[in-house]
């Protein structure tokens, strides 16, 4: 990639070092000083203001993520894939960079595809064979004073959407992709497994299109949050009735939930799995799937749904209300992970807040 000449630089692209939060080693997070990434044509420098952390970041911390085990992510690892920030500088012709302006609030796609491989050429960017994922592998994350990203991976945040909502766009896109993939129609009965960030966003979204949305949770706090966000009935695992649902969204990542999903789906029912189970499924009676005509689909990520997710937050269909457990400064990143690790609360999301340089 070519470095731009001065007349191809909009805004002031700082150099030197910056503060970042990183997974330093297995089970150890802390603050580090790293180089500010330099300007490259077509790239934008953004100063993140809010960064959400989630179970995926915990997998990085524990060293259990596949990309840590296979060496794609190395320590110290600057994480952060759920974020919002402000455009600081653009490496490109200012006159032609009308899509983005200095100072714009933006969110960024987690998956950065190559554009040239077979999957990309067929329009399946999220199946790219050269994929990089922001904050996971191949691309520094947003828990830093600055992040450099391709201009086309950024989406402008509409004015009335606050930073917490914008940072929730990343988990929301996968929920939207799941509902889109299985199709949810007016009057249908939906069951959501899980009351974490994805589960609660699925409840918020599905209640607008389905007839009823019920939820399965494992604790009072999560179930209470789901009921406040529009779920009609709440069940503990094993309590929902067999065959009662047209659509099941599995957002807990628990293996028993996937098995229960197969039972509670009605004849012709559709199941979307967005939670990633850590263990293999025990033997499944495949005749159930065939004879009852049940469809089960895995949803990798909602790469093409960022604009829609932000619009839904802007219109109040999705909301950050009741979603944020606590917010920490970058220097207190260890406390943020401690809270996330401690487990379930009514509000599922832990966030970091960054103060932009003057
Ligand atoms: Zn996440
Ligand atoms: Zn590709």
Report the structural category. Answer: alpha/beta
Tell me the number of structural domains: 2
Could you tell me the strand content as a percent range? Answer: 25-35%
* CATH architectural type of the largest domain: Alpha-Beta Complex
CATH class of the largest domain: Alpha Beta
Number of helices: 11
- List the uncertain runs: none
| CATH-derived topology of the largest domain | Quinone Oxidoreductase, Chain A, domain 1
Number of extended strands? 20
- Overall 3D geometry? globular
Assembly context of the chains: single chain
Major sheet attributes: 8 strands, mixed
Instruction: Specify the helix fraction band.
Output: 25-40%
CATH homologous superfamily grouping of the largest domain? Medium-chain alcohol dehydrogenases, catalytic domain
Rounded Rg: 21 Å
Mean pLDDT: 93
Q: How far is the N terminus from the C terminus?
A: 30 Å
* Bound molecule types: zinc ion
């Amino acid at each position: 990639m070519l470095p731009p000449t001065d007349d191809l630089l909009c805004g002031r692209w700082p150099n030197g070092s910056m503060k970042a939060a990183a997974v330093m080693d297995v089970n150890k997070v802390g603050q580090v000083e790293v180089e500010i990434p330099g300007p490259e044509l077509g790239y934008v420098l953004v100063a993140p203001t809010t960064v959400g952390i989630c179970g995926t970041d915990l997998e990085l911390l524990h060293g259990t993520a596949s990309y840590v085990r296979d060496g794609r992510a190395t320590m110290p690892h600057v994480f952060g894939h759920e974020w919002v920030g402000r455009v600081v500088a653009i490496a490109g012709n200012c006159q032609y960079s009308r899509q983005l302006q200095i100072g714009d609030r933006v969110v960024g796609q987690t998956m950065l595809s190559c554009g040239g491989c077979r999957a990309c050429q067929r329009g399946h960017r999220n199946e790219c064979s050269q994929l990089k994922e922001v904050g996971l592998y191949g691309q520094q994350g947003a828990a830093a004073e600055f992040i450099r990203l391709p201009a086309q991976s950024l989406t402008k945040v509409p004015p009335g959407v606050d930073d917490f909502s914008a940072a929730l766009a990343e988990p929301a896109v996968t929920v939207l992709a799941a509902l889109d993939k299985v199709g949810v129609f007016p009057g249908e009965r939906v069951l959501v497994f899980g009351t974490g960030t994805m589960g609660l966003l699925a409840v918020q979204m599905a209640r607008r299109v389905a007839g009823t949305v019920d939820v399965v949770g494992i604790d009072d706090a999560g179930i209470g949050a789901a009921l406040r966000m529009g779920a009609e009935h709440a069940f503990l695992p094993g309590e929902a009735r067999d065959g009662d649902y047209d659509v099941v969204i599995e957002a807990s990542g628990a293996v028993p939930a996937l098995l229960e999903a197969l039972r509670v789906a009605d004849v012709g029912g559709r199941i979307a799995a967005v939670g990633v189970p850590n263990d293999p499924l025990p033997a499944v009676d495949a005749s159930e799937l065939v004879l009852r005509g049940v469809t089960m689909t895995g949803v990798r990520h909602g790469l093409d749904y960022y604009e829609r997710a932000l619009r839904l937050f802007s219109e109040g269909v999705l909301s950050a209300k009741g979603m944020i457990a606590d917010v920490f400064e970058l220097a207190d990143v260890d406390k943020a992970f401690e809270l996330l690790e401690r487990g379930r609360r009514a509000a599922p999301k832990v966030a970091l807040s960054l103060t932009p340089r003057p």
